[in-house]
Amino acid sequence: MKCNVGKKDRIIRIVIGLAILIPHYVYYAVTGYYCVWANIGYIPLLTGLFKFCPLYVPFKINTDKKT
Question: pTM higher than 0.70, yes or no?
Answer without folding.
Answer: yes
